[in-house]
Design brief:
Elements: H1 3-33, E1 37-44, E2 55-60, E3 63-68, E4 74-79, E5 82-89, E6 93-94, E7 96-102, E8 108-110, E9 113-114, E10 116-117, E11 143-145, H2 148-151, H3 157-167, E12 178-181, E13 184-185, E14 195-200, E15 216-221, E16 229-238, E17 243-244, E18 257-268, E19 273-295, E20 301-326, E21 329-345, E22 357-374, E23 378-395, E24 401-404, E25 408-411, E26 418-435, E27 438-455, E28 462-465, H4 468-479, H5 484-489, E29 491-492, E30 501-502, E31 507-513, E32 516-535, E33 538-549, E34 557-568, E35 578-588, H6 593-601, E36 607-613, E37 637-640, E38 648-660, E39 664-683, E40 710-730, E41 736-749, E42 769-770, E43 777-786, E44 790-799, E45 803-804, E46 823-824, E47 833-836, E48 839-842, E49 857-858, E50 862-875, E51 902-911, E52 951-962
Parallel strand pairs: 1-8, 1-9, 12-15, 24-28, 37-40
Antiparallel strand pairs: 1-4, 2-3, 2-5, 5-7, 6-10, 11-14, 12-13, 14-15, 16-18, 16-52, 17-52, 18-19, 19-20, 20-21, 21-22, 22-23, 23-26, 24-25, 26-27, 27-32, 28-31, 29-30, 31-36, 32-33, 33-34, 34-35, 35-38, 38-39, 39-40, 40-41, 41-42, 41-43, 43-44, 44-50, 45-49, 46-48, 47-48, 50-51, 51-52
Keywords: Cell outer membrane, Membrane, Signal
Protein name: Cna B-type protein
Domain TonB-dependent transporter Oar-like beta-barrel: 221-276, 304-552, 554-875
């Protein structure tokens, strides 16, 4: 083990031991030396599920305190001896009113509280919680979804997942939202009905988080309950109810449907243990739609629209156990099993059915957590997670892949066979301490990834043609027995280009050699922060995080964080007029194990990958060259740049937030981000600029003196972006719940991710420009409870068009990449000029011409509206009212009768209820018969469960029974 890594491990173990010693010292004398007693309790709803973020107000003996329950519904408070009035308030429930007696001298008083669903307009005034309005975790820009908020989103798990991702700002493909399930990273979205609460964009600059809090999704699943409860539901759709996909052509379509089953059971196991178990199964017969241009029997271009059946089945099982070892010690164990099987995957748009493949994926997850509340001021949490993923993928065709730029992709799948094993381990240790006006948090996380697989990607070989005309000339020549020289000398004039197009493939790539490879990488992070309140209306949050990762050159990644919050106009009896927040921090990304595996496999020794420019037509299409015939050609290799840095972003932000009475809140936010050392891939042995002659593969001066392509993962990119967003949440009445958010992002970058190639290998900055993200995004959702047990919900989204890239479809600079862009035409008489509705472009740029910016095109905007209705029928015996705790006075008004034991509901949901056609991103390859056209639908909210690419509007029905 390297000395630096040994030091890191020693430091982490020392830190854990130090926290443990603090815990033991603090816990030991607490029972004998403190003058105060401890009031503790767990707040639950009628089903027994714990209620997080409930306000607990304690008053008596001249003392008035407000605290909130934690994520497990628990609260702890140190109080002098005496009798206190306790009021517990949470949205959607009637207030709980009781008394608690504290004896003192280190004793613990337990006050369990069960909340009742609100059925009347009783209101209890609780003083403003002045101790937490400026806390980092209380930012109103955060979105907390629970209860009615969750009901406002789709009942379909796939659509629900896409809606949550969108609310977290999921419009940037380069920086997708980070999802944490019960505090762990790398997990899968659980079914909606198993989720207790979702928090989005909370505590954005906390040092506890590796990523910026904006865009962070924290999902908390339901715990066990103290009474037996259960639910079973089913929903789905059929093609007879749906509106046809306008891009599926006019011919008949194969039938399609989707059926989903879900069920859960929870209850107690003895006095201190409870369980929650659930499972689901989905059977979906989907259709994939192909829109491409191929050749007919007479070798004439033929536009085809084909619908291919794409069956999918998924299964899920989960079991969760909660054990209360003592009042202040809780253990949770959680196991999940997921399996997905797909047939004819990878088909659609320009990809023909021959490129389909079948796959099955199995994922198992084990989570263990232990939370200790030490006295009244300290908490220690330990977490462990193991994720085991196994993937099997097999192609339906092993012939060479054929790529005709902008027309079709055919032949065998380039992915071919893949058997992939992934193992991910995660260890966490978190400690918090409250001391006077300081709240300290510290901890560490270690993650270990191992990936091993057998892969034969591109073992079948891949031929690339610049356009359908070149492919047509080649096919005609082969049919007539022409030689490669004759085929390449045969040229044809087209209407899409004023320059002649000649026959022959532009490039052949083929891989062979060793198929097995494995890699391991780990990352360690340590953090410490102090949330200091020098005044009741002002909070300073200072934090520092240290990160490191193995298997890459960069091992030292310091990340300072700072946050400030001022509650303007706040007093002991009045909420602030507005809360102003600002902060800044440095955030790193971790290099993926998959990319490291590529460098191990394709190192020029284990697996050999060759690229041939202008390959002989004598090989195409029934044969591929053997590796022995290419031994004289240097293979293409992948490597990590020796100076690779971890990419990072420096983010600064400002927020203004205001509470709308007790019914809601609104916040306005501005963020500025600058990313440095952004990852991309470069061919560091590409021909030097100006030395390559298009059409002559032997031309060009290469810096390494060989014809070898060396693809290097580098950290040379830069990103600059600003984001302004405003969001609000308003509970108009107990029956009406509203939420809305409007986001205006503006982002420019010259790197699109570690696996993306620069268009100019020696000057990636020429790609600096706007990214493929929408400039305007609007989201809103609402729920409404109607009479007669009917409830409705709706979700609406409008998004501006997404920029898309316009390319020539050719490799103009000899770097083996087909991402070159044309220039703005300055001489319309040149044969290389193409006239389009986006402008006049020159596909053979002169040195004096200006290359068009990246993502120069604009795709259509997007409009989506979802509507759902449900009817509830409640019946059966009513459970006995919850007994009041000893010493609790009777309420002033009689408590409402508990709901009947059984609930039967019938559900209806319409996705894209207006049947609005949302075109997908247009084809951006010049010379393509589809250039500038959309050949597919764009609907990210049609998720993976009941969605079908064969439908423009989906109608689903379901029923549910719970007890």
């Amino acid at each position: 083990m390297p000395n630096r890594w040994r030091s890191y491990c020693v430091f982490l173990l020392s830190l854990i031991g130090f926290m443990g010693s603090i815990a033991c010292r603090a816990q030991g004398p607490a029972a004998s030396s403190t003058k105060d007693g401890v009031l503790t309790g767990v707040v639950v709803d009628p089903s027994g599920a714990t209620v997080a973020a409930a306000t607990v107000h304690i008053e008596g003996h001249g003392i008035e305190r407000n605290i909130t329950t934690d994520s497990t519904g628990r609260f702890n408070l140190s109080l002098p001896a005496g009798s206190y009035e306790v009021i517990i308030v949470s949205a959607g429930f009637d207030p709980y009113v009781g008394t608690a007696k504290i004896i003192g001298q280190g004793t613990v008083t337990n006050l369990p509280a069960s909340l009742v669903i609100a059925t009347q307009t009783e209101q209890v005034d609780v003083a403003a919680d002045t101790s937490s309005s400026t806390a980092g975790a209380d930012n109103k820009s955060a979105t907390v979804l629970k209860g009615d908020d969750l009901k406002s989103l789709s009942t379909d798990d796939g659509t629900f997942q896409q809606e949550v991702l969108a609310l977290a700002g999921g419009g940037d493909p380069q920086q997708p939202p980070q999802v944490y399930v019960d505090g762990f990273s790398g997990g899968q979205f659980p079914p909606k009905n198993s989720i207790r609460e979702i928090r989005i964009n909370q505590n954005p600059f906390s040092a506890e988080y590796s990523e910026l809090g904006f865009g962070r999704i924290e999902i908390f699943t339901k715990p066990g309950s103290n009474k037996f409860h259960g639910e079973i539901n089913t929903y789905g759709n059929d093609d007879v109810f749906n509106a046809r996909n306008p891009y599926s052509g006019t011919g008949p379509q194969p039938p399609y449907h989707s059926v989903h089953f879900y069920g859960n059971v929870s209850g107690p196991i003895g006095k201190n243990t409870s369980f929650f178990t659930d499972g689901s199964y989905n059977d979906q017969l989907n259709n994939s739609i192909v829109n491409a241009t191929t050749l007919d029997a007479n070798l004439q271009p033929l536009a085809i629209t084909e619908t291919v059946t794409n069956p999918q089945t998924t299964g899920y099982f989960s079991a969760k156990l909660d054990r209360q070892w003592s009042t202040n010690n809780t253990f949770t164990g959680h196991y999940q099993f997921n399996r997905a099987s797909l047939t004819n995957s990878g088909i659609g748009q320009l990809v023909l059915p021959s490129e389909g493949y079948n796959s099955s994926t199995t994922t198992q997850t084990l989570q263990l957590s232990n939370t200790q509340v030490i006295g009244t001021k300290m908490t220690n949490e330990m977490h462990f997670q193991y994720i085991r993923t196994r993937l099997q993928q097999n192609p339906t065709d092993t012939s060479p892949t054929i790529v005709v730029q902008g027309a079709f992709n055919g032949g065998g799948s380039p992915a071919q066979q893949l058997h992939d094993n992934q193992d991910a381990y995660e260890f966490q240790e978190y400690f918090s301490l409250e001391h006077k006006t300081h709240f300290f948090r510290m901890g560490g996380r270690y993650r270990l990834y191992r990936e091993a697989n057998l892969a034969t990607a591109n073992y079948n070989g891949q031929y690339i043609f610049p356009n359908i005309t070149a492919y047509q000339i080649t096919q005609a020549g082969l049919l007539n027995g022409a030689s490669d020289q004759t085929i390449r000398a045969t040229c044809q004039q087209t209407t899409t280009s004023t320059s002649p197009i000649c026959g022959g493939a532009t490039q052949l790539t083929i891989t062979g050699g060793q198929t097995n490879a494995s890699v391991s990488t780990g990352d360690l992070s340590l953090y410490a922060e102090d949330e200091w309140k020098p005044r009741k209306d002002f909070t300073v949050d200072l934090g520092f995080r240290f990160e490191t990762q193995s298997a890459i050159p960069d091992h030292v990644d310091p990340a300072p964080r700072i946050g400030l919050a001022w509650a303007v106009g706040q007093t002991d009896k009045r909420q602030p007029f507005v809360v102003l927040r600002t902060g800044t921090g440095l955030f790193y990304d971790r290099f993926k194990a998959t990319n490291l595996l590529t460098t191990i496999r394709e190192n020029g020794v284990a697996q050999l990958s060759y690229t041939l420019n202008n390959p002989s037509s004598d090989l195409y299409p029934l044969t591929k060259p053997s590796l022995s015939s290419l031994i004289s050609s240097p293979p293409t290799i992948y490597q990590v740049a020796p100076n690779l840095r971890s990419e990072y972003t420096i983010t600064s932000g400002f927020t203004a937030e205001r509470a709308l009475g007790k019914k809601g809140n609104v916040s306005a936010n501005y963020l500025y981000n600058r990313g440095d050392h952004q990852w991309l891939t470069r061919n560091i042995n590409a021909p030097l600029p100006g030395t390559y002659i298009y059409g002559d593969p032997t031309s060009g001066v290469r810096p390494l003196g060989t014809q070898q392509n060396v693809y290097q993962f580098a950290a040379t990119g830069t990103t600059k972006s600003t984001v302004f967003f405003i969001n609000g949440h308003y509970q108009a009445t107990k029956r009406i719940n509203l939420f809305a958010a409007y986001v205006i992002p503006a982002k420019k970058s010259d790197a699109s991710g570690a696996t993306s190639f620069a268009s100019n290998q020696y000057d990636p900055s020429v790609d600096f420009g706007r990214t493929a993200t929408s400039r305007h995004r609007l989201f809103s959702f609402a729920s409404l409870d109607l009479p007669l047990g009917i409830s409705s919900y709706t979700f609406f989204s409008w998004q501006g068009g997404v920029p898309f890239n316009i390319t020539t479809g050719t490799d103009l600079n000899g770097d083996t990449q087909f991402n070159d862009r044309p220039a703005f035409a300055t001489d319309l008489t040149r044969p290389s000029v193409v006239r389009t509705r986006f402008g006049n472009f020159d596909t053979s740029p002169l040195p004096t011409q200006t290359i068009i910016p990246i993502n120069y095109g604009n795709s259509p905007s997007f409009v989506y509206w979802e509507l759902g209705l449900s009817k509830h029928v409640k019946f059966g015996p009513r459970p006995a009212p919850e007994p009041l705790p000893p010493g609790t006075p009777a309420p002033k008004t009689p408590a409402p009768k508990p709901d009947p034991r059984y609930d039967l509901s019938f559900n209806f949901e319409a996705d894209n209820v207006l049947n609005h056609v949302n075109p997908g991103v247009p084809v951006g390859v010049l010379g393509s018969p589809f250039f500038g056209q959309s050949i597919s639908l764009n609907n990210p909210f049609q998720g993976n469960t009941t969605a079908s690419t064969a439908a423009n509007r989906l109608i689903s029905f379901g029923t549910s029974f719970s007890f």
